[in-house]
Amino acid sequence: MAESVLVRCPACGRDHSYTAPTFPCACGTPLAPPVRYGALPVQVRHRSWEDSWVRVRCPDCDRRDHWPQPEFDCSCGALVRLPVDVEAAEQAGRLPAPQGAGPLPDGQTPSAAVRPPFRPVTIRTARDALTAAAQFLKWLGYPGVRMADDRSASGIDLRGEGVVALVDPTTHPTELRDVECLWLNSAHEDAVGALFSLAGYAQEARLRADKLGVPLFVMDLTGTPQPVNDAADTLLRSEPATG
């Protein structure tokens, strides 16, 4: 596993324990972007695809490929990015082999008897974000998750048995109206609702989601959703309504 580092959010000053996500090279060697110790994290205000990747060399096969920048969504709503040691990335050290087929976010591991390790889908396009969210909902136990037929009319992107979801792949914080749209659809269909965002959430959206009990997740470019409110934590730890 990559080493955990203590990171202070530059926006609110809250401390976080952060571990850079580990993912396999094409040859199978597990790699993680090396965080530059002592360097100050930065708040990402305008996210671009070009700035969201870092080049890392595999020590086993010498393959140089682009991996997602180490970053996380603070509970204050800020997207925080950690500087990468570029020289170390070129000399990337081998990490111990993971126990499962893919890494799981800290604090999100459900009972091993209930779910296998989650296999994330790397996000490079908006469609990848939909695929990653759909895979995550299936992993939670909701069968038949697919892209909604009436996306433009309802505002819902994914539907499955007992679940509806909205996925925001833009580079701007997800807004209040998206939270309310998802809540109305989930109430109308008597289904669980989940909202996935790449750029985090506006403060009003966070507050309304907490009041309505709407699960909010953020996704980094490895395609691994992270819960950002209590409703999302509860969803991770509960059996699906269709189970």
Oligomer: single chain
Give me the count of strands: 15
Strand % is 15-25%
Structural class call reads alpha+beta
Low confidence ranges: 93-113
Features:
243 residues, alpha+beta, 6-stranded mixed β-sheet, 3-stranded antiparallel β-sheet, 6 helices, 15 strands, 23% helix
Can you walk through the features of this model?
With 243 residues, the protein is an alpha+beta fold. Helix content is 23%, strand content 23%. The protein contains six helices and 15 strands. The chain has helices spanning 86-90, 126-140, 151-154, 176-188, 203-212, 230-237; strands spanning 4-8, 15-19, 23-24, 30-31, 42-43, 53-57, 64-68, 71-73, 79-81, 146-147, 158-160, 163-168, 192-197, 216-219, 225-227. It has a six-stranded mixed sheet with strand order 10-11-12-13-14-15, with helices on both faces. Strands 5-9-8 form a three-stranded antiparallel sheet, with no helix packed on it. The protein has a two-stranded antiparallel ribbon with strand order 1-2. A hairpin with a 2-residue loop joins strand 11 (158-160) and strand 12 (163-168). Helix 4 (176-188) runs parallel beside helix 5. The longest helix has 15 residues, at 126-140. The two termini are 33 Å apart. The relative contact order is 0.14. The model is unreliable at 93-113 (pLDDT under 50).
